[in-house]
Amino acid sequence: MKINIIKAYMLKEFKELFRSRLIVMVYLMPSMILLLFGYGIKLDVSHARILILDYDQSKYSLQLASKFEHTKYFNAKSLHVSEQEALRMIKQAKEDAILIIPASFEKNLLQGKKSEVGVFVDTSFPTRGATIEAYIQGTIISAVQEIAKSLGIVQTGLIQIDNRNLFNQAMRDENAIVPGLIGLVLLIAPAILAALLIVKEKERGTIFNFYASPLSRGEFLFAKLFPAFLLHSVNIFILLLLTLYVFDVPFRGSFFLYWFASELYILISISIGMLISIITSRQIVAVVLTLIITIIPGFLYSGMLMPISSMDGASKIEAHIFPVMYYNHIIYDTFLIGQGLASQKILLYLGILCLYIFILFAIGVKLLKKEMK
Amino acid sequence: MTTLEIRDVSVIYKKLAAVSHISLHVSKGEIIGFIGADGAGKSSLIHAIAGVIQFEGEILYSGHSYHSPQEAEAIKPIMGLMPQGIGLVLYDTLSVMEHLEFFADLRGLTKDEKFYAYRKKLLHMSGLSDFTDRLAGNLSGGMMQKLSLICTLLHRPKLLILDEPTTGVDPLSRLELWEILDNIRKEEGTIIIVSTAYMQEAAKMDRIFLFDEGNIIAQGTSRALLNSIASYTYIATQDTTKNAITFDKRTYSLENLNAEHTQPTLEGLFFINALKNNKTLAPVTIEQRQTEKNIPEIVMQAKGISKYFGSFVANDHINMTLKRGEILGLLGANGAGKTTFIKMLLGLYKIDDGELKLLGKSIKSAQDRMTLKGKIGYVSQHFALYNDMTVKENLIYFANMHKIPLQTAMQRINTYAKELGFDKHMNDLPKELPLGVNQRFSIAAALLHEPVVLFLDEPTSGVDTLARAQFWQILHKLKEKWGISILITTHYMSEAEYCDKVVLLKRGKKIADDTVENLYKNNPNAKTFEDIFLAYFKAES
Description:
The complex is a heterodimer.
Chain A: H1 3-19, H2 22-40, E1 48-54, H3 59-66, E2 74-78, H4 83-91, E3 97-101, H5 105-110, E4 118-121, H6 126-151, H7 173-204, H8 207-211, H9 217-246, H10 255-279, H11 283-300, H12 313-321, H13 324-337, H14 344-367
Parallel strand pairs in A: 1-2, 1-3
Antiparallel strand pairs in A: 3-4
Helix pairs in contact in A: 1-9, 2-7, 2-9, 7-9, 7-10, 7-11, 7-13, 9-10, 10-11, 10-13, 10-14, 13-14
Chain B: E1 3-13, E2 16-27, E3 31-35, H1 42-50, E4 56-61, E5 64-66, H2 69-72, E6 79-82, H3 96-106, H4 113-126, H5 141-153, E7 159-163, H6 171-188, E8 191-196, E9 207-212, E10 215-220, H7 222-230, E11 233-235, E12 244-247, E13 250-253, H8 267-276, E14 298-309, E15 312-323, E16 327-331, H9 338-346, E17 353-358, E18 361-362, H10 366-370, E19 376-379, H11 391-401, H12 406-419, H13 435-447, E20 453-457, H14 465-482, E21 485-490, E22 501-506, E23 509-515, H15 516-522, H16 529-540
Parallel strand pairs in B: 3-8, 3-9, 6-7, 7-8, 16-21, 16-22, 19-20, 20-21
Antiparallel strand pairs in B: 1-2, 1-4, 4-5, 9-10, 11-13, 12-13, 14-15, 14-17, 17-18, 22-23
Helix pairs in contact in B: 3-5, 4-5, 11-12, 11-13
């Protein structure tokens, strides 16, 4: 290794990065993505607008309706309008759901007869609709149980569900989304920087300095990619701080594991960028290609929007091809679970990340030619 | 004895032979030159020698033989390559000194007294001593080339390969570049290979190799080469057989002509070669134009026109007049402001200061130009052609843009195709055609609406000698038959000869403006236009 030459190249890289203001992008983009998406993605439902049509106006129907008030899940509103009118309001997106309590509600209840309540939910967004529906059902069941108890009616069900949520007890979106975003950001940003660093020289023509010099291909790649690696290593900490203090995500695992896995992951991202810069010759093409290759799998197969375990067939295979799945598993562990290296799976995944680096770099060194196309 | 030997080298580019079966031999301290047009194969051979492209055949440098870039790695430490393109190997955001540091480190030089002394000497030779803190992006084209050269020289290469180091560089900087090269080879015994598009530079080389279509068509000292065609060169005469080419006051013919012999030029070598291959310039005939035009005496008048890009002055109060039926050559190095000026004339750039009159009409707004669009023809630097449409489709498209009825348009297209000699290529795509053909059909596109003035931006750049000769013939015929005025920019100083009047720009300023005869009269010692311009450049700096 010609250490001095590599040092000279790296010094030049840093000077160029700072003077061309590219450094701003290196630090602004990852934090921006984290903040924008972290605030922007909402999967749980709160303050669903529910319209209650209480045709009974009895003690128990009011008790049921009141269950929808004073909760963060619903914004309840009782109106005396026709069902047609209520449906029109849901069509105009003024309400998310309608609850209809029939006139004979209390009478049937007291007589021990079956009583029906009507629930209409806007399910144009299926997950959101299903969530609202479940909330409504849960609220009704708990209200009815309370009523039954006060009436002294014997419970028919013997099993009561004692539900406890694990890892994300508060079921906060931030806890579920933001760590996954780190996996997305650290896949995109280092890849773009790495791709630009080599393609820039090709587009400009300065790549001839490498072609005509005694520098070997491995040394050139090292000199080019090491600055990208160093700069983005800082991002690992910036992103962690944002996650912990801006989004209040808990951190239950080992910091060292988070750091180590992230450095490995950055190396993978950088080698993806390197491969792209080897096959392209224009900066704009390199950037677009990098974005396509990293963002789509980074989102879909991160386990952020849907768990990998619920995928099947092609999507499951694809998820296993991209590195983001393995990294995110480790990241979620460090934030939410904290098993760390005690988990066999995490050890295996770390190994897979290492394997990625090795394979991508090997391909890169093989493909990079010290000659013109 | 360090020598370079090239044995039967071919470079295949996209299944076509860029150069085929070249063999040559260079000795220590020799400067050899590759001369030829773009695409003639100079760069391909240079890349092969520098070991940056795959090639067939064998190259031997002082006993070390290589057949591929991989094998050439061994000679990279003693080799220096400066590829084609102004400031190509420079980093815009690094200063002159930082470049020297970087290249020194890249070559693993030990920074001792000797290194600093050499670096100082190089900086002095290149005249960059006072600009060590300036960023490369802010250097002029000539300074960039000089910086690239000294960066390449820093490790004292024994084999120095320079691909068109002087193209687009001002005459003074070119002279200085050659002085540096001459010193280096004398002091270091370096083998220097230089390619150039300027014939005039041949005199500075020990031996020259003329490239045409991937082959070397002639080689030797410039004197020997000139002598070899002396017997074919005559003073321009009309009395010729079919196999003769007349250009630039000379007639070249393989057969004996009833005319006096004259001093040949190196360009003649390309003509003689063409004649030997039974090629001649296709005869150019231009018919009278269909519509009669009323042309004012003064076609274009610019008074104190200026253009600023931030703090950079691209055009500094330029005065210029273009008369009816005049060919005005706008000359200058890259970045002198030629293109900026034409773009202001066309309204592609806003005029920041000064007055412009076109065809007797004062131009104040875009509205003023609208009525003139039909009278102006323009060919841009890189020929604004659509590469995915055939020549014919391109021409029809341009005719439509000028709202010419299809029947008239087709008739004109067919006439021009015959007259300008591209009728064989009507159904080909521009990207598959040689630059010379594209150039001619770009002219046809600009002539479709029968303009009274033509603006041509570097139309001859990279075009081979024959095509250039033909091109100038076309322009002269157009002037003669149509009474058209032509403003043409070029960085080939020698092309000034073919103009009626010449304006010389240097870094946005006009430094000469006169007719060709007057320029010669005022500079009695000058042999060529190169010398005249050099005098102006020296007077300015």
